[in-house]
Amino acid sequence: MLKVDSISKTFRSLRNVVRALTGVSLEVKPGEIVALLGRNGSGKTTTIRTVCGLVIPDEGSVSINGLRFGQPNYMAQLGALIDTNRVLFPRLSPFENLVYTCAVRGMRRPEARERAKYLLDLLGLWEKRNAPAQTLSKGMVSKMAFAVAIAHDPPFVLLDEPTLGLDIDAAEVLEAQILGMAKAGKGILLTTHQLEVAERLCTRVAILSGGRIVVDKAKEELLEMFDLQSYRVTFKEPVNLPELPFQHTLDESGRVLEVILDHPEQLYELMRRLHPRPLRSIEKREVELAEIFRSYTARKESHSA
Amino acid sequence: MRKLAILFGAEAWRAWLEEVRYPLQFVMGLVFMGLIFFLLKGVAQLSGVSSSNPETIFRLLVGYLLGLLAMSALSGIAAQISREAKSGTLENMVLSGHGLTAFFVTQALARLAPILLNTVILFLVLTNHNKINFSLSWEMLPAIGLFYIAALGLGLVVGALALLFKEIRTFFMLAQLLVFPAVIANLPQLEWFPLVLGASVIRDLLQGSAVEAYWWILLLAETTAVLCVGVLLFELADREARKRGLLGHE
């Protein structure tokens, strides 16, 4: 299991002090895809970089299958895609880049060549195996970054925005690989701003806001919980809304209000505030992960304000 | 040790691929370095040093080539750090689990072959052109080895600065200004400086003189000390860069 245990990190420079993470804890079990979501600057990349050992936390620890960073074989448990744009040795071809990556991880040359061939085939890059790395398109480089991350077939993989900038076909190929890896028992921690990608892939959702984890739940549990708190209110005629202390949107016609409550009992409060506007219907509705994300990050921001 | 051998094998393969892919770079480097030597010779002549004296030319030539070798080690690690940070491959080095010190030292050693080949070709061509006689002995190998390791130790110090401060081009220039004249001129006042001591031992060996055990012991002790300081500072800088979150930044 990959375990992030109460890590905190503050970056200090001459000009400013940035509290990046506060007591962040997370777990990724084998076969699980955990989506780490958050707005820009919420601490996602710092969390990923800390797990990789690129950042040393001020407090807390990270362990993988009981091994802590610095212990032999910690890194053998881990593969990471940190930057999809910059990952290749520019003077080597994709095939050579992968053979080198495998060789550095201890594979013998014939084994490394086999693995490189397998990965290039898998990601549809075999045709480009001998092209200079500088001539690859952005999408191809992203796929190569993914291939480099999983070259040594690690049990845990960290993916920082893996589908960023990919066209729909390339994104589908990558998503299929990620799902396949999880099926094969690998634990995956991924960050993304594409919430529909997270919704399709993940089994668990952790949301970071202001450097803190504000929610960490199984995706189904989270969606179910929000289904109980999400309502669609339809009015007989366009209305002006009173001040509502819940996340809500009123459509352009001014007749349909969608609202997410913090807990189901707030429905009474909602009704009280909407009175005496003419109601046509009120119904529960299914929510999407994007709305849950907005709800949590907005809530955190309003609390900190 | 097995891990280092794996790393060395992979790095040597990468260095070889990069060299053979750009052969003109190697040839032009050779021509350029040859031309710089003639420029140096001209400057020496203008400043009143007799360039017809084989002894003077020999000192200049050996000093120049050793200076080039030292500079490749001195700036090589820092230059490689900047290159890897730019291409985004520095993170992958960390993720490989070898540790950055092992990575960059191994990389420098794996890239030594073309530099040595360059130096030997230039040495043979220029000694032949200037009709200089020299003698070769097996003792040259440890002498050049110790000279290079000392330069590598200093290279780690410069690399440590590159890890923390990123842009250190002016420091490179300063190092070049200090190291080149020190190695070429072989000033007695700087005899304690490891690179100068190493250069002096190599010069003596090439001229067929015996080197006393005392100088060997001193050279070995100095080289070990410089390498240890280099490794220590590089490790500290690596840790500090991770603490500040700077690793992998350009």
From TrEMBL, chain A:
<dbReference type="Pfam" id="PF00005">
    <property type="entry name" value="ABC_tran"/>
</dbReference>
<dbReference type="InterPro" id="IPR003439">
    <property type="entry name" value="ABC_transporter-like_ATP-bd"/>
</dbReference>
<keyword id="KW-0813">Transport</keyword>
<dbReference type="InterPro" id="IPR027417">
    <property type="entry name" value="P-loop_NTPase"/>
</dbReference>
<protein>
    <submittedName>
        <fullName>ABC transporter related protein</fullName>
    </submittedName>
</protein>
<feature type="domain" description="ABC transporter">
    <location>
        <begin position="2"/>
        <end position="235"/>
    </location>
</feature>
<keyword id="KW-0067">ATP-binding</keyword>
<keyword id="KW-0547">Nucleotide-binding</keyword>
<dbReference type="InterPro" id="IPR003593">
    <property type="entry name" value="AAA+_ATPase"/>
</dbReference>
<comment type="similarity">
    <text>Belongs to the ABC transporter superfamily.</text>
</comment>
<dbReference type="InterPro" id="IPR050763">
    <property type="entry name" value="ABC_transporter_ATP-binding"/>
</dbReference>
From TrEMBL, chain B:
<feature type="transmembrane region" description="Helical">
    <location>
        <begin position="146"/>
        <end position="165"/>
    </location>
</feature>
<keyword id="KW-0472">Membrane</keyword>
<feature type="transmembrane region" description="Helical">
    <location>
        <begin position="20"/>
        <end position="40"/>
    </location>
</feature>
<keyword id="KW-0812">Transmembrane</keyword>
<keyword id="KW-1133">Transmembrane helix</keyword>
<protein>
    <submittedName>
        <fullName>ABC-2 type transporter</fullName>
    </submittedName>
</protein>
<feature type="transmembrane region" description="Helical">
    <location>
        <begin position="100"/>
        <end position="126"/>
    </location>
</feature>
<feature type="transmembrane region" description="Helical">
    <location>
        <begin position="172"/>
        <end position="193"/>
    </location>
</feature>
<feature type="transmembrane region" description="Helical">
    <location>
        <begin position="60"/>
        <end position="79"/>
    </location>
</feature>
<feature type="transmembrane region" description="Helical">
    <location>
        <begin position="213"/>
        <end position="234"/>
    </location>
</feature>
